[in-house]
Specification:
By secondary structure, the chain is an alpha/beta fold. The chain contains 14 helices and 13 strands. The chain has a single domain (2-369), classed as Alpha-Beta Barrel (TIM Barrel). The chain has helices at residues 37-47, 79-89, 109-112, 137-157, 171-176, 191-194, 196-209, 231-242, 282-290, 305-313, 323-327, 331-336, 351-358, 362-369, and strands spanning 7-8, 14-15, 19-21, 53-55, 59-60, 95-101, 117-118, 133-134, 161-166, 214-219, 248-251, 295-299, 318-321. Strands 3-4-6-9-10-11-12-13 form an eight-stranded parallel barrel, surrounded by six helices. It has a two-stranded antiparallel ribbon with strand order 1-2. Strands 7-8 form a two-stranded parallel ribbon. Helix 1 packs parallel to helix 2, helix 2 crosses helix 4 (137-157) and helix 4 (137-157) runs parallel beside helix 7 (196-209). The chain is globular.
Length: 378
């Protein structure tokens, strides 16, 4: 079966199978951005079930862009922490990938101590969002360099590669979005200019890693909000990303079946205004445009082997598993042994049991429970 077959990336590195552990926000690091023992146990236990590659929780590249109390890859003081994380992620010999990001206008001032900065002085749609200041040209160049420096740290820490978080309304997404980016310089305006920042970051990371490590890019395939970028826009971006010799492009969807991306508001218990979904499926369309120059990774709603095969049937080369492996740390081992009937269907009712039985950091438990309906409860 294809899902258990190995996959060789452009870099020459090989994943033992097509399953990736998706990047999962823990919100559980130390205040200085170093990894905690709880986080290490969370990822070590799940990686031990045999994922071809494991992608870390996302690491900030500049303190001003922190959106979570998560890990950092912003300076040499984070190197030892990143080394510990890479070792834990290789629990069963799979590839270890560090995801890196900047929050832009959805960073948290209580973590950064600074006013929000973003492509333009346009507030997020999230309830209570404050208006950021527009970044200067020098700040944009510095942020690009910070992504490259974070990739260098990942290489020194022993990671097998880096995934750039260009999705889910973080800074790279904001530069590409006509809703968030109203600039009139080379970093905004036309579609071509709005692509300049994502492409510059991808090039900086590729250069920092060299040709033998994996470089991935996670993208939201369209904006659900009115006036947002379209699937056709994203296809143009992915075509250009594939020219940079990236190893994979990860398609960020809430559920790979229905083309529904993550909304900016993160309101889970009320109505959300959305544009109609595209007629074509993002995974299939990206696979067609990329045409084998980079691998395509699908995510969202992968709960069974059949789901994984369905995503690969749409054109994906790899599948990223998130919520299922949060609920059941041994999910992949059960799928491999054809014991899917024993897969846990939801989180325990009691908070202490969620943390203890499932090796989930206590702060992460609070984060998960703040998103009603995102993960089922028993």
């Amino acid at each position: 079966m294809v899902v258990w077959s190995p996959f060789r990336f452009n870099s020459g590195q090989q994943a033992a199978n097509r399953f990736a552990m998706a990047p999962l926000t823990t919100d559980s690091s130390n205040q200085d951005g170093t990894v905690t023992d709880h986080e290490l146990e969370f990822v070590r236990r799940r990686a031990a079930s045999g994922f071809g590659l494991t992608v870390s929780s996302t690491a900030y590249v500049e303190n001003d862009g922190r959106s979570w109390q998560g890990i950092g890859a912003a300076h040499r003081g984070h190197l030892a922490s990143l080394q510990r994380l890479a070792e834990a992620m290789r629990a069963a010999g799979g590839l270890a990938i560090l995801q890196i990001y900047d929050g832009g206008r959805i960073a948290k001032p209580e973590l950064t101590g600074e006013q929000l900065r973003a492509p333009s002085a346009v507030a997020s749609l999230r309830p209570g969002a404050s208006t950021p200041r527009a970044m200067t040209a020098d700040e944009i160049e510095k942020l690009i360099a910070s992504f490259g420096q974070a990739a260098s740290l990942a290489r020194k820490a022993g990671f097998d590669g880096v995934e750039i978080h260009g999705a889910n309304h973080y800074a790279i997404h904001q530069f590409f979005s006509p809703r968030a980016n109203h600039r009139a310089d080379k970093w905004g305006g036309t579609l071509a200019k709005r692509m300049n920042f994502p492409l510059a970051v991808a090039q900086a990371v590729r250069d920092a890693l060299g040709p033998k490590l994996i470089a991935g890019f996670r993208v939201t395939p369209l904006e659900a909000e009115p006036g947002g970028y379209t699937l056709e826009d994203a296809k143009v971006l992915c075509n250009e990303l594939a020219r940079l010799d990236l190893d994979y492009i990860s398609v960020s969807l809430d559920d790979y079946r229905n083309s529904r991306p993550v909304g900016e508001t993160r309101v889970y218990d009320g109505p959300i205004e959305r544009s109609p979904p595209p007629a074509a499926h993002p995974v299939t369309e990206f696979a067609r445009v990329i045409a084998g120059r980079s691998a395509v990774m699908a995510s969202g709603g992968i709960r069974t082997r059949k789901d994984a095969e369905g995503a690969i049937g749409m054109g994906a080369d790899l599948v990223a598993v998130g919520r299922a492996v949060v609920v059941d740390p041994e999910w992949l081992a059960k799928v491999r042994s054809k014991s899917e009937a024993s897969i846990l269907a939801g989180l325990p009712k009691e908070k202490p049991e969620i943390a203890g039985a499932l090796s989930i950091p206590p702060r992460m438990v609070d984060y998960l429970l703040s998103r009603p309906g995102w993960i089922p409860r028993l």
